[in-house]
Write a structure and sequence with these properties.
Among the domains are: about 1-65 and about 840-909, no CATH class; about 230-390, Up-down Bundle (de novo design (two linked rop proteins)); about 395-580, TIM Barrel. About 60% of the residues lie in helices and about 5% in strands. It contains 38 helices and 8 strands. Strands 1-2-3-4-5-6-7-8 form an 8-stranded parallel β-barrel, surrounded by 7 helices. The radius of gyration is 29 Å and the shape is globular.
């Protein structure tokens, strides 16, 4: 009987799990390796097929052939107008939307880049199968190409044998901009213009962008020693080179369109005095353009008959020179990037320099009656420059607060002032403000810290002073706790000559830090110097991942909800506009979930048309892996943010808040009791899950822990979530919630809980996401890991956790309006179907993983002279560098099961 047949019988209930387990345990390691690879690839291809189905559904939505489950921006605009929102207010709100999507390198994507590239090709071919008017020959050819790609995928090494560098991560992140995002943004804005026109509203202004994009790749140094100052410099150049290439190609394409000869006097004046290459001899310029191997328009155009082409030729020349200067900086690591660009009269330093001639041409075309020409490809390019600039993404810098205190201590001790880290808060603030206002430098140029870690912090600020300011976003302080954590960054930027200082953003992560955040910001705003310096704007980041690991999902979610309300109130009291940066992950345990639900569930008055959020791991591929999906993602962000602004959700009733306070406190206590107060829990977690083996996956440049310590405190939230996902138990999402609901019901709140679920978007979204995770969980699988990997002394821990799981499921069903998990609607039925389709593949992978984790950990079991007959398999096993073929097969099998299970958990919420 095959693995699939046995797996099907397990899920039909006609065969016990042990039969499948015994069969897989009887196979040789190299046989199980092949089976794991096949199962992993099947799940991966299943995800691709569903992505393609989603693309087809999106096309049908946009064509009006299929009803949307999530309202589009067009739908929201119509709905708001019907509710009586004036056209003028709607238009102003749309113009003011400010949505900043920040790509991070958090390693939740378990596929190597080569596999992701192959996936894109397969996805593209599958999409091609759905295109109309394909001849029979074309269909045959598409199927042949598709089979070739799948065959090659099955014959490729699926594992990353080395860790990616932050530069690798940035190149991978940028590939989404090159393939989809750069082109999709102007298409979406054009669609908005069309929607507005249908309703008698003016199109958006040419320089209105709505979206901005950021990145943490190569900037997030919190606990990642691989992100050095040199690395940050590299990723800035890589991003600017990619942007310059995209803009260069766009300008060359636009030159074909703008053969128009009519122009305004303003354009004629620019041709006489504004061109950067104006002083060059025309003959020499032609020779130079030939040398640059321009494909078209290398001979000088006529200013009389082709004025716009003359301007675009000049823009193209400047982009070429900018690209050459960046290449020079990349190959000469000591070169000051900002100084190099500023030293050349023909290099662009900031996007405004490029935007100026484009806007000039647009004004001229409109004034001379060529409005349709102006609002075609030229308008798209203007919007691309406005959104992406010369950078594609703006890099955030992130570092942990104590690293700044330590570096500051190195300076104060050198100056004989004592250890800054040991000073009180009042003394720190007084010193920092005085130094920021003092024009003289604090340290001599030759100063070097004794500790390499402290010098690394200081060198980061030195590098920031040599980078173009438009390449930089925010400076984020992890584990921020006090006003001085913010002020020290402002002081160090001034000390090392950062010309346009990055805005400083405190990140509140743990439950205690979130609860104390209003007091922290009140103290900061009470400093008159700081309040004047920020000019009425402040950004705070909220950590969904670490707060959940600290207190459990329910308590963390409510703490974030209340924290936003209180911080908004504090800011309002001081006349400051507060903007929140949501550090959401892809999974529910890290704050993930459907976009529109997540935005709609935010407290009223906390978004106000301005949203900043992280896009992480496999979510990048899910949201931006295809042009149609990219369009849909942009549409959902815009529609949900606009809806929240103009039709905010109602504030919760006082009695709902009282019940939620009770639930939060009880769930937090139950979560911490099970996780932090049980002396055997950490050992159980390390034994019953593959958390200790995750580092071998090489799926990110960051270590799994911030610091080397045995407890959960220093463990990052990602491996914490990932490990429980592998065992399909999803403990971080639901633990503690059953006890909380039971206690609230005992206090007489059962009816209130049901009403809260029906009427309060925050509570409804939270409960629905927990229900979805409960549907994905399988305690029998978790028990199998326990029996395979743990000693009997740890069995009581697992028994207690599984009892809590069953109790949580029962309690959750008691407050929702249906009597079975996912028994509510069509979307739930769809999710059930998707889970069922994957189960026959995932369960064998779970069994294999539990067996082979035991083999990895018990090396005494490994035979010394293990023979593998198949030379091709021997070749594959040698890729990892392990001489012992048995150990190589076992280790690779564990890694493949991790990759396969991760794929199986995708696309299911």
């Amino acid at each position: 009987m095959t693995v699939f047949a046995l797996s099907d019988k397990v899920h039909e209930g006609s065969e016990p799990l042990g039969e499948l387990e015994a069969f897989l345990a009887s196979l040789r390691p190299e046989e199980v390796l092949i089976i794991s690879s096949q199962l992993s690839n099947m799940l991966n291809l299943h995800n691709i097929a569903e992505d393609v189905a989603n693309v087809q559904a999106e096309r049908a939505h946009r064509a009006g052939e299929l009803e949307r489950q999530v309202p589009s921006t067009d739908d929201i605009i119509k709905n708001l107008l019907m509710k009586g929102v004036p056209k003028e207010r709607l238009y102003e709100a749309l113009k003011a939307l400010d949505i900043d999507l920040v790509m991070t390198a958090h390693p939740t994507q378990a596929l190597p880049r080569s596999v992701l590239k192959a996936n894109k090709k397969i996805r593209r071919l599958l999409n091609g199968m759905h295109e109309s008017r394909k001849s029979p020959h074309q269909i045959v050819e598409l199927k042949h190409s598709l089979r070739a790609q799948i065959e090659a995928l099955y014959r490729s090494d699926e594992l990353s044998r080395t860790k990616p560098t932050p530069q690798d991560e940035m190149r991978h992140g940028i590939s989404y901009f090159q393939e989809t995002v750069f082109h999709s943004v102007p298409q979406f804005l054009r669609r908005l213009d069309t929607s507005l026109a249908k309703m008698g509203i003016d199109p958006l202004p040419p320089d209105c962008c709505i979206f901005n994009f950021g990145s943490w790749m190569g900037g997030d140094r919190d606990g990642n020693p691989n992100v050095t100052p040199e690395c940050t410099r590299d990723v800035i150049i890589i991003a600017r080179l990619a942007a310059t290439d995209l803009l260069f190609n766009a300008v060359e394409e636009l030159m074909f369109d703008l053969s128009v000869w009519r122009c305004t006097d303003e354009v004629r004046a620019y041709l006489r005095h504004g061109l950067r290459n104006r002083s060059a001899n025309p003959e020499e310029l032609e020779v130079e353009r030939r040398r640059r191997n321009y494909s078209n328009f290398w001979t000088p155009c006529s200013e009389k008959t082709e004025p716009y082409r003359v301007i675009l030729q000049d823009v193209r020349d400047c982009l070429y020179d900018t690209r050459e200067a960046l290449h020079h900086c990349l190959t000469h690591p000591k070169t000051n990037i900002l100084a190099t660009l500023e030293a050349s009269a023909t290099c662009y330093v900031n996007a405004q320099e490029l935007l100026e001639p484009l806007l000039l041409m647009h004004r001229s075309l409109v004034e001379r009656g060529d409005k349709f020409v102006a609002n075609d490809r030229l308008l798209d390019l203007i919007r691309q420059v406005r959104v992406f600039g010369l950078t594609l993404v703006r890099l955030d810098i992130r570092q942990e607060s104590t690293r700044h205190s330590s570096a500051m201590s190195a300076i104060t001790e050198y100056l004989g002032l004592g250890a800054y880290a040991e000073w009180g808060e009042e003394e720190r603030v007084k010193f920092l403000v005085e130094e920021i206002e003092n024009s003289r430098p604090l340290t001599p140029p030759s100063f070097r810290a004794k500790s390499p870690e402290d010098q690394d912090v200081l060198d980061t600020f030195k590098v920031l002073s040599q980078l173009p300011s438009d390449s930089l976003g925010a400076y984020i302080i992890s584990m921020a706790k006090a006003p001085s954590d913010v002020l020290v960054i402002m002081m160090l930027q001034k000390e090392f000559g950062v010309r346009r200082p990055l805005r400083v953003v405190p990140l509140f992560e743990t439950l205690d830090d979130i609860d104390a955040a209003p007091q922290t910001m009140t103290a900061l705003f009470s400093n008159a110097w700081y309040l004047e310096r920020i000019r009425g704007k402040q950004e705070c980041m909220l950590g969904y991942s670490d707060s959940g690991k600290d207190a459990g999902r329910l308590a963390a979610a409510y703490a974030l909800y209340v924290g936003q309300e209180k911080l908004t109130g504090v800011a309002r009291d001081f006349g400051v506009q507060m903007r929140f940066f949501h550090g959401r992950g892809g999974t529910v345990g890290r704050g993930g979930g459907p976009l529109h639900v997540a935005i709609r569930s935010q407290p009223p008055g906390t978004i106000e048309g301005s949203l900043r959020v992280t896009i992480q791991g496999e979510i990048i591929e899910h949201d931006f892996g295809d042009p149609e999906l990219t369009f849909k993602t942009l549409d959902i962000y815009a529609s949900s943010t606009l809806h929240h602004l103009l039709h905010p959700p109602a504030a919760p009733k006082p009695e709902w808040r009282a019940v939620m306070e009770t639930l939060s406190a009880l769930s937090c206590d139950a979560f911490r009791g099970a996780v932090y107060r049980n002396p055997d829990f950490v050992k159980y977690f390390n034994t019953a899950t593959p958390v200790t083996e995750l580092g071998r996956l090489n799926i990110g440049s960051r270590p799994a822990k911030r610091k080397k310590s045995p407890g959960l405190g220093s463990l990052r939230a990602i491996p914490w979530i990932f490990a429980w996902t592998q065992t399909r138990f999803h403990l971080p999402v639901w633990l503690g919630i059953g006890e909380a609901i039971e206690a609230a019901k005992a206090q007489g709140h059962e009816d209130t809980l049901a009403i809260m679920h029906q009427q309060w978007p925050f509570f409804s979204a939270t409960v629905d996401m927990i229900e979805m995770v409960l549907a994905k969980a399988d305690p029998k699988i978790e028990e199998m890991y326990e029996k395979s990997l743990c000693g009997e002394e740890l069995y009581p821990v697992g028994e207690d956790l599984r009892r809590r799981f069953g109790h949580t499921k029962q309690m959750l069903l008691s407050i929702v309006a249906h009597d079975s998990i996912l028994g509510s609607n069509v979307m739930s039925s769809n999710l059930k179907y998707r889970l069922g389709m994957r189960a026959r593949y995932i369960t064998p992978l779970n069994i294999i993983q539990s067996i082979y984790l035991r083999k990895v950990r018990d090396e005494s079991d490994a035979p010394e002279n293990y023979e593998v007959a198949d030379p091709e398999i021997r070749g594959v096993l040698s890729l990892g560098g392990e001489a012992n073929l048995y150990k190589a097969a076992v280790a690779d099998t564990v890694m493949l099961t991790m990759k396969g299970i991760a794929a199986g958990m995708q696309n299911t919420g």
